[in-house]
TerB family tellurite resistance protein
Amino acid sequence: MGTTQRIIPGVTGEPNWGNLSLDITTVAKTVDKQGQLANQPQPNAKLQQTLSKRKDHQIKQAVGHLIQAAGGRRAVSRGTSAATGRAGTRVARQLTRFFTLVGTSGLGGALATPAAPFNFSGLTVAEIIDRIILLCSDGSTGMDETAAIAACGQVLEQLEQPGQTPQQFEAALQTLAAGNGLEKLLCQYFGYYIFEHLSQRFQEKITQLKGSAVAAATFDEIKEDILGRVQVIAAARPIAQIDWAGPQGSQIIEDIFDSILALF
């Protein structure tokens, strides 16, 4: 199971942004060099360390250029940039409001519509996740919306366990809603969201330039680096009970996103 299998971006024609495109190509070259070095009979540990530091710097620079190309940190974190940020903050608000509803009304109540109640018995957890994703989406098909929805799916799938029943999944959601785990989930969400923007724009290009194996390794490294940096923010932001459905929740979402962008 995977979000990328359920949500196909299908967004083409957006021009690559110059500096950012070069950044990702440079990361791929470094990852390729690391792979070649690792396959040598006697790998050079010192050179590997140098390449690893270089790659970390290149990834940080790439995300910085993504933010810059989208209009800057302020525009992205406040959701005023249609290129990167608008759908990301909107879906984050939808997701936290959904968790709030799960905490007060249960999973069925959170998934119900004004027209009809919702009974999740008989559904798989994957089907429930699909419904939550649809609930968080406004139906747009642009790259920003696609990145936000893919990130939403990623964090929800992290809560799914092998053999988990819908009732057990509901209990996991309620535990998050009742505790102080939502800020960590939001940090992870924004990490995936940033990664999805880079992956959607450039994975095909890197596959054409360097082959599928190097492309896959490159974007695995990018994802790991971004999520690793985001964990620092998650650990530093213990938040008590928040009214996620109100202005306070929206402000905290922007603050968390801004803190993450500041890392880059």
Q: What stands out?
A: The chain has one domain: 58-262. Residues 198 and 254 are 21 Å apart (CA to CA).
